[in-house]
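Reopening this ticket.

The earlier resolution said the output was attached, but the attachment link was broken on my side. Pasting everything inline this time so it's all in one place.
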Amino acid sequence: EFRRVLFRSKKGDAIDGVLLLDKPEGMSSNWALQLSRRLINAQKAGHTGTLDPFATGLLPLAFGNATKYSADLLHADKRYEAVLRFGARTDTMDKTGEVTETSDMRPTRQALEALLPEFTGQIEQVPPMYSAIKRDGKNLYDLARRGIEVERHPRKVHVHHLELMEFDSETAKIDVRVSKGTYIRVLADDIGRKLGCFAHLESLRRTEVGDLKIADAIPFAVIDDKEKTVQERRALLKGADFLLQTLGSVRLDAVQTERLRNGQRLPLKDTRHGELLRAYGSSGELLGTVKVDARGTLHPHRLIRFVVTENLETNGDE
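Inline output:
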């Protein structure tokens, strides 16, 4: 079970790092964030895009200076394993909703496999009423709960990969990698309608966010282990620069470090023109990101004030 009480604690410590959390079913993303923040007693925390409460899987959480880079993952591709149940449509397009239409028809494996290419590549989706999209300052899900439905315009999204993993007469499991803003619930509903049998999401598990993988995630039960100390929980964090690992890096000397900290450009004649780089100071501390212009000059892009914390000094990237 999840811990359902709010913790009364101090303001928290200036902790920098990233936690790849395996969110359990039934917990909201914000609740997972707040509980994790309290369990490691951190001052500042943010997540990189929500998962529906009924969904499980990869939820990257950023603490302290790492939050400066968490917003970049909002635009990253996501990958999921989803189970579709045939024969019923629900108002939420997943198992948590009320059934609105049913069918005795069931698709064949061949019919489903033949249909999936139609949902690969650039497609259009109509956002669901049960979503956080705002209309006239109100969330659509608030309107939906009051029985109000409003017009929503189709949006273009991209399905990079869509593969059938398992199939029986009642359910199908798919592996799907999609662009930002894609609703897997809508994908399930659209597939069901195209097959003529209706469908909704039985389960949803996020396995990738950008280059981050579920295999590296920590189950919430491990973080919530009452036998663990705060220091032991903090040892589960990745470094503050973990979300920047796909970028190249540059190491600066003491003079260059001070200049960059003051927001100055560095004419280093770097040959990685146009690239965004991780910048490290003379002591190996993360300074932030810099952009290289056509002349090889490093421009401050997104700088941080690195805070050294004992728990992260020995926590290398894995």
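Reporter confirms the inline version is readable. The radius of gyration is 23 Å. Residues 166 and 286 are 44 Å apart (CA to CA).
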